[in-house]
Amino acid sequence: MRGKALFWDFDGTLILPNESFFTALSTALQKYGYEIASEKIRTLLHSACSWYKPEVSYEKMTGAKW
Q: Alpha carbon 48 to chain centroid distance?
């Protein structure tokens, strides 16, 4: 039996890897009265979003890990 895999080119398909996530998160936080330093938001996004680290292998990141 063969395994199944899904490969999806997220970059440029649903998002452009620029400041769009940063701007959206910053705007949403401000709307609800939260002020978080820009660098903290960037740090969070760079640690949470895999497209910022394409050199890292994510082959074992499936299910709940992903």
A: 5
Amino acid at 51: W
What phi and psi, each to the nearest 5 degrees, are found at residue 3? -80, 165
Using DSSP's 3-state secondary structure scheme, residue 38 falls into helix
Q: pTM above the 0.90 mark?
A: no
How far apart CA 20 and CA 26 sit, in angstroms, is 10
Q: What is the DSSP letter of 20?
A: H
pLDDT in tens, the chain (66 residues): 577 777 666 656 665 666 677 788 888 999 999 988 988 888 887 787 777 787 888 788 777 776
Q: How far apart are the first and last CA of the chain?
A: 24
